[in-house]
Design goal:
single chain, 112 residues, mainly beta, 6-stranded mixed beta sheet, 49% strand
Length: 112
Amino acid sequence: EVQLQAFGGGLVQPGGSLRLSCAASGFTFSSYGMSWVRQAPGKEVEWVSTINARGSNLHYTDSVLGRFTISRDNAKNMLYLQMNSLQPEDTAMYFCTNGIERGQGTLVTVSS
């Protein structure tokens, strides 16, 4: 059974930082590109970032470029998203996905 559990969200002030983590199991993690997506209240799911299986190619949506950094540890089956300079518009439920399944998300709230 594929499991993708995101954690590390929380309430942060504008300009603050958070590091999200995603624990993966049930599939060969090191063979899959992985992504973060997010869904703000009342909005559709938005792609945020993707990292290839080896961790050598990184892609970001324009709104987070230069602020967010995606990374992975294939030895630990872990995916990360370092989020800096957070803004209220980053408020959303964040999910990790292997392109096939999406796990339980973690809520990020940016507010003063």
